[in-house]
Design brief:
Elements: E1 4-7, H1 22-30, E2 34-38, E3 55-58, H2 60-66, E4 69-72, H3 78-83, E5 89-92, H4 100-108, E6 112-115, H5 130-149, E7 157-159, E8 162-164, E9 168-172, H6 176-187, E10 191-195, H7 202-207, E11 211-212, H8 231-245, E12 250-253, H9 268-272, E13 279-282, E14 299-302, E15 305-308, H10 318-336, E16 337-338, E17 341-342, H11 349-354, E18 355-358, E19 361-362
Parallel strand pairs: 1-2, 1-4, 2-3, 4-5, 5-6, 9-10, 9-12, 10-11, 12-13, 13-15
Antiparallel strand pairs: 6-18, 7-8, 14-15, 16-17, 18-19
Helix pairs in contact: 1-10, 5-6, 5-10
Amino acid sequence: MTITVGALREAAAGERRVAITPEVARKLHGKGVRVLLEHGAGEAAGFPDQSYAEATFADAQQVLAQADLLACVLPPVDAVFEQMREGATVVGQLRPHGAATRIAALGRRKLTAFALELLPRTTRAQAMDVLSSQAAVAGYRAMLIAAEACPKFFPMLTTAAGTIRPSRVLVIGAGVAGLQAIATARRLGAQTEGYDVRPETREQIESLGAKFLDLGVSAAGTGGYARELSVEERAAQQQALADHLKVVDVIVTTAAVPGRPAPKILTAAMVGGMKPGALIVDLAAEGGGNCELTRPGERVEHAGVTILGPLNLPAGAPLHASEMYARNVYNFTELLLRDGAIAPDFSDELVARTCLSHGGEPRFQG
């Protein structure tokens, strides 16, 4: 029997991405897989139905009734799972932490589900790593938002009215989002610094033409992870950061841990010590924010400083974000296909560690 892979229009407010692009539909078709999409599934991302030469279109109920595997960007409402074929498979960002009701809904239809956020950060998993691909989009867009909201020019300008000095930009966190934000700030001509508690990120930050901010406290640990700072070390770090923030025009914070509240890095007192007109863009807003004053999805003014807490930034660049995300989904789906059937190999670490439920039985302990 031919495997059917389906996707719906994403239902979350403001979500414009799609889990299957025309490119990925073509690749699936080449493997003998039938692609079944809801009418208009890719339209908001810039992919009208006619751009999917190798896909079939139907209404949502038909897609759910026929799909052997449903690909999604964000978890659908639980009612969607109730309409799926019993024993079918779901692949996407399923927000597994604190998802007891979602796992129960999967169980009622004996569904197998893979949450791509749970992929281990290994070399082999990079081609499927949705967190990294979407973080790159978020870091890029965060710096564009900062450039738009900043009351200053980013680059140095020499004009008939005099020379305009470049903005001083600090990016906190040198993960994928942070490095992309640093690269974007540099492209925009800002005087750019990057900071991370892991001193080994210095080389990455400097390779982008930015300066590494050294606060005199090292949190170097084992396996590439930061160790926990002592009370004295943390106090010294916080004081050094607070002193430095007084000369910064723009801060973009990117420190986030999936499934856990974002670490608080910027206190209200630090913000109060910044210069009037300064700007903070908090990429960790969805997890509560790296700044104590951040309100998710809102703009806050405090002592002349503006704090922005944007949400779901990848949805704001839906075409390229969808292309990257769909390739991730395709590369993971390849692991599940064997001999013309969906047959997960749970001896494969990538399959085992992303499994949220198998045949309706919970597999995730979190």
